[in-house]
């Protein structure tokens, strides 16, 4: 069954990419709009830094590293999960999710790979060059171990993002309605492009525990740069690297639980 999935997945991805690229002009216009939108957010941070010089002790290149790290990890994780799991609510409500249950294929794998969102290309096009510039501009002595930590932290943050989105989407299998939870998710996600230490203690705890999105941005970047991390302290680095795989396991367990509870649109 596993080998069967591996053979089918490339075909699912290829068909979806072809459908997305049918109107290439519109596709790239949307990507340009994304770049301008997130570019304006970054410009706003730049305006703050021009006035106050630092933000929570973070300089301009350090904030650029934080912003690009957050955007890259999110785009990689969300490309594999967000639109697909957001649309799961509608599939459940209309009863069309039942058709996936009779396919000789994992419903989760079918949802994710048949809807792989290449629309996040705009995020990546902005994040990667900015990340490279920040790496070269930040006042930090890079080494092989720090580069390895950066890459591993991006991978872990990507997994954590995808896992959290999967868990939110999977609640539709039990409650039918789940998309309002995405509003909460993105409300907290907006905060994570800023250093964790500028927020009150209650928000810091929330962003590390209940909604651990700080582990996808400010915590790993602070640990990399040797900055103090509230609550976690010296454990920031290990916790960052362990968070992604751990939340993937939690997401898998939650998906199985929600699938067992699923009774169809009729309840």
From TrEMBL:
Which Pfam families does UniProt cross-reference here?
A: ABC2_membrane_6
Q: Keywords in alphabetical order, please.
A: Membrane, Transmembrane, Transmembrane helix
**Which InterPro entries does UniProt cross-reference here?**
ABC-2_transporter-like
Q: Does the keyword Membrane apply?
A: yes
Q: Does the keyword Transmembrane helix apply?
A: yes
| Annotated TM spans | 32-52, 64-83, 108-136, 148-176, 196-215, 235-253
The name under which this protein is listed is: ABC-2 family transporter protein
């Amino acid at each position: 069954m596993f080998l069967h999935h591996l053979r089918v997945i490339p075909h699912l991805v290829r068909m979806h990419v072809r459908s997305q690229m049918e109107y290439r002009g519109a596709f790239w216009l949307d990507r340009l709009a994304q770049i301008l939108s997130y570019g304006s957010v970054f410009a706003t941070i730049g305006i703050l830094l021009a006035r106050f010089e630092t933000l929570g002790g973070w300089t301009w290149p350090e904030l650029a590293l934080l912003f690009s790290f957050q955007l890259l990890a999110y785009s990689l994780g969300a490309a594999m999960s967000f639109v697909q799991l957001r649309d799961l609510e509608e599939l459940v409500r209309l009863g069309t999710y039942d058709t996936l249950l009779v396919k000789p294929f994992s419903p989760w794998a079918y949802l994710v790979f048949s809807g792989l969102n290449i629309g996040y290309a705009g995020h990546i096009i902005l994040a990667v060059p900015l990340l490279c510039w920040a790496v070269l501009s930040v006042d930090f002595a890079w080494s092989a171990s720090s580069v390895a930590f950066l890459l591993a932290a991006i991978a872990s943050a990507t997994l954590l993002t995808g896992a959290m989105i999967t868990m939110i989407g999977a609640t539709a299998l039990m409650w039918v309605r789940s998309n309002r939870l995405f509003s909460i998710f993105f409300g907290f996600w907006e905060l994570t492009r800023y250093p964790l230490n500028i927020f009150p203690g209650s928000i810091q705890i929330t962003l590390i525990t209940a909604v651990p999105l700080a582990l996808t941005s400010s915590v790993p970047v602070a640990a990399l740069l040797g900055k103090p991390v509230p609550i976690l302290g010296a454990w920031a680095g290990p916790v960052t690297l362990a968070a992604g795989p751990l939340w993937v396991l939690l997401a898998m367990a939650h998906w199985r639980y929600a699938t067992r509870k699923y009774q169809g649109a009729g309840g």
